């Protein structure tokens, strides 16, 4: 009996701070003797670890989630006005684009009602000077490409075609008259542009192999051939067609206006990626264009390449945005989705995925940041941009793939906001030069040997 | 002058076997002096290499393409009648399924008209004995799962739900009366089955955590809860619902017949993978089932697990089929698509992708082959099947990804028969146990430690 | 007060099965109120999980570790006498080779005292018929190559040079007299052979580019040139030198005997892999060989290639062995090494590594198993063997890398039996044809296009 | 006959610019009719490609190789004096360290004669202010860590132990007297320091689990326990020992002087990585230390962690250096090594490896650049540093592995300057926190959940 009382006293000592009611509830759910047995087999370090875990998970739970800018490139590195613009664009995308984008993607249609709102942001032709354009830095433009792709890569692509490829061709290679005619309206999205380079048998970066022809007859040019994958072309007001002059074999650019009877545009069907982007298959049959609608300073493919170099950095940033959007969705999902009674973000295997995603994302961000700095410093070369395209499109594939994976089955439902990124990453991977072509561009630069054929 | 004649004589010597007309044509296209200059700078080995290349590519061009069974597992390892069945099923899929499948996938609809034709193949319930079933080997069944998924993973999944999960539950866990009632009709696809295990908050392999409840009242059971992702459920005649008996907390199985008023099935929308598979979100509200429709030999989750173990090998084989279909499409594409004037299959970077695909594909095939042998020998364990699921779903992801990559932009168009595999591989990756869950099943077996929580 | 007694009664009810002494010990180590608080916040599923974990880890702890033959290829698939031989060879390696091998590796010396013991196993020239050779299957030979490399890849390489390359050249391409003279002694390791193909500027699989020359003068041949990387050459009794006949430009083979004054052999220094293998740099300066020591049936490089095809399967098996050795060491290490008070094998991140290793290992095993079957069926082609070499050397790199990783810092100490495999895997990766060369061999076979240059 | 003359005229037209002698030489080496036949089968694009290839490879061959700073971080981003210091350190390493380092590595010995020369560079304690230290930026320090590791990771580690861990502990946690006593001499390498944290059973980043004890007795402390892996410890003048105070259970630091009889140091043998680094196994047996040699401001493990946070960025930079050294060696090798008569750098498969290496290298550089900026801005957190450690040590493994691969067999010979990097990368991968531990540090920060146990 004294034994029993001493036991009671021990019990009192042991449990005076324990919430007895909770313990009683608990005893219905777990096998207490077994728990004690198990715990007794642990050593001090293990028990400390366990206590620390309970403590730290409690303490940390209140922390706000750290978003996908782990190294504070936006907050710290941008000037105030740039940071403000970045946040304004982000807010617009979250509010106006995100809620509608999955349904448009599914239907493979374009949300035309968004165009005037995008125009209001006044970010089109961001880096150009004059013609109503803001004249901001390439770094800023890159960051905004990331912001757009973070919510939807299709919208970002639509924007890139208009602001970069189409306006850029005119800005870099047009005459003063041509710039005056087109750029102000395009900057405000009153005029929509497209960029017709790729052909059914000639990929987007295949220099010089174009088969579309241009033949000069008097003051006119006659264009013949086909263009494939031309973004925005189904509804564009002006489409820049790149064709080989039959006379001097050089590639020249032509501003083909909507309604030109020699140009037939068919919408490409059945894509599994970037389904919002309206890609046209363009057939040119004796398509007549006035000499004054030829880009006056585009004399050879080298000039076309200038446009591509300028925009390729943007594609790298788009990849970053795509990865960031997927990562952030996955992070939020895993912090709330439970398995075995715990948020899945508390499992090692899930954390491992998240950290791999974040490290790739952060590396891409710092890489593109430097790329845009090089561009702003006038040091950008083709191979710099190609390297970023290769690295970012590869790493993005890895990020979106893990984002989908941590979501299990739900990852294949569009509503969870990762499936779309998984599909779209495949398009980014291949457009504006496949991984292979861009690798060989870098490879030639570093080795001094061309290995294309 | 003598010099000139000796030159002429030399020319004659040099060119007497050359086709002069061809040379003349050629001289218009290439800069001959430069070619001679370049060739002269090569040494003997290089020139031999060049000659060998020209020779071998000529010689090899006639060879028939080697299909995706590089180690002759089908041809060599199957008995004659099995090989014949394999080829019959393949022919059916090529002829009847392949031409329609992309459009159904795009519309997210099921090709009901194919069901009677699939029935005619007489391969449903392939390994079961009696009840109209053929009683063939597990190896044969695995090979056929590969054949089906090679053309379409959705069709293969539809088949697997019917033949494996639904019929398998009844075959393994039903009473003799239940088997007599259901199996013959199901074997002929006159009755369609579904398998209701997964729940909105409980993934497909999460043992024991089921929240759907069953309460016995007299001779009836009252089911309440939700099931998600249930394949075929939108049109099934009978759906096996797994629920936890409120009395003894054990998981039991119930045959719920079409039209039961307590069961509401909603078609899941907006999937980016396996879009042909009709997944149901099932809500059970006081759903009444007769005791005689309870699976009579399903006493706990361990019995459910028997069904899953039997079918998991099939999922591994499906992954193989998905990879094989993508590889074969990619191989054919690269042998005909040209860049820089040559089939892209003649470039090192493309061959590297093809060989990586083929090596993974072949490894998967030999692994699954052995897995099915273990099954036929009665040696199969959960961890064997889980290992195959993990390996094959990971490697398949890699294969389909490369298949898409070598197709460039065309890889995102459904018509090129790879985009669909890319998307579907994501579903395979996560269903019947995610990579993480299956890894932890194997991990527990090899280390002796459970690491699920 | 009644409250206090009811609490005591509750306490008694709660704890009557608990070991009170253990609990008291425990209360000194953990913060009991906090534990109760934490546990109370868990729901039923989480608690079940926790209980299950404790239970299962207890139960499973007693299980014997499953060794690196997860799919029972050895146990099940080998005939009894083959299985016995496999186990005999394994026992020899564990007992005689394993204890000494790290020190020899470190000193870059060869354990000559092991040679008579290896001879006693009577496994040299395993597949050959006659000349004292056992005439067993290629599958058996492959399994033994795995067993040897599982303990040490250098020893396995030494054996492969003797049994495969050197004896194989004579067996396949020698005259009857030559076979009689050499094979019986070599089978018993009384005569050691080497195989001199690779040259300083010509890699191991570079067909036909050999620069070593042979010139016939009367009944003799004069050899000139250099050979690099020639395994066993520093102590071989006979070295087969492959050289190009200056007359007909064909590659021929010569048996150069130890002591020939025209042959100088220098030991290659400073390797970071396969340090036990003694590689010779051979310089041939007007080295005279009798016509009767020319391999009588080696007429061109095609004949040399026959030897390489036969042995390449063995290299794939060696890779499997290397991976298996590393995996098994890692598995054992992680089951005993503790962190945070638990064996590290009980952490998800470590299990993930182990399962990745095991799945790759098992895939390699089933692939090579089939490869050897093809060889035994007479169906083996170069591309079959090359595919296996590519797959296995790549996957092995991944396996050994993870094996080292799970060992943390200890993984770089030789005593833990993984560091050596990490280094040796690099040699396997590149010898008998790099990944690139073997990929292009397969690539040519499947595409019909040669892409070597 | 007229036909013949017209042919001759054609021949003249065709070949008037061709160097006939070269053509004649060529005709002996290649089968001209076949070449013409082959070329005739090509189309215009293919021929253009071929011509372009010949042109571009000619033109590009003269280009200087682009070194491993593809995005000009050193040239453009450093201030002049920093750039000058970077180049001075690089020159020293190239001239004094590179020529001797392979032999020391092989012998596992330390090049003591280099110490005074390193001292002369005046870069030790680079970021500290006062005590003879230069007070430069963390960015500069990171760049120099990269420069050192680019030539040898062991030397870089030796330096990091002295400048970062040992001096850093005193600088951050010592009293003013302690700083005065030690730092000036250490800055000039007159006093060598070591940092004793890791224990046989407790890895480098395992907070708080230390088992080495300290017991205060009067004005002395008695230390007992073991330390493993302690760099420089075999010859250090002062070793900082971290031990748990038996009284308050907090971790404290002690400056143990050379010759202390209670401290026994044994050199660790048989490492396969960082063989130049002399790691000590320290046994403390009633080791007495004066209270005045206790680090006066080290009150708990949190203080130790401050030192680790400061130095972890340096480890990330070391990984970058290791990758850069391997890449540059591989680039140079592939530009000169020939196969099939061409530099191997001109093959697609090799270029692909080089570009993968360079893209990873460049991403690491930009990531670490930003990391050091965060450090200089006072924003660095543990998780920032851990992310960089994880990313860089993983990517470095990939880079060195490819560097070795492109070298084929020669890649395993130390003389080609890549094998050492391959081995050393494994040490970097695991020291100062394994990938797993650092991932869980980041994981806790981003998810709010601790998953260590």
From TrEMBL, chains A, B, C, D:
SUPFAM superfamilies with a match to the protein in the record: Acyl-CoA dehydrogenase C-terminal domain-like, Acyl-CoA dehydrogenase NM domain-like
Keyword Transport: no
Acyl-CoA dehydrogenase/oxidase C-terminal domain boundaries: 305-446
Cofactors, names only: FAD
InterPro entries in the cross-refs: ACX4-like (IPR045008), Acyl-CoA_DH_CS (IPR006089), Acyl-CoA_Oxase/DH_mid-dom (IPR006091), Acyl-CoA_Oxase/DH_mid-dom_sf (IPR046373), AcylCo_DH-like_C (IPR036250), AcylCo_DH/oxidase_C (IPR009075), AcylCoA_DH/ox_N (IPR013786), AcylCoA_DH/ox_N_sf (IPR037069)
Swiss-Prot/TrEMBL GO biological process terms: fatty acid beta-oxidation
Domain of life: Bacteria
One example GO MF annotation: flavin adenine dinucleotide binding
Domain Acyl-CoA dehydrogenase/oxidase N-terminal, chain residue ranges per copy: 80-187
Pfam families listed in its UniProt record: Acyl-CoA_dh_1 (PF00441), Acyl-CoA_dh_M (PF02770), Acyl-CoA_dh_N (PF02771)
Entry protein name: Glutaryl-CoA dehydrogenase
Organism phylogeny: Bacteria, Pseudomonadati, Bacteroidota, Sphingobacteriia, Sphingobacteriales
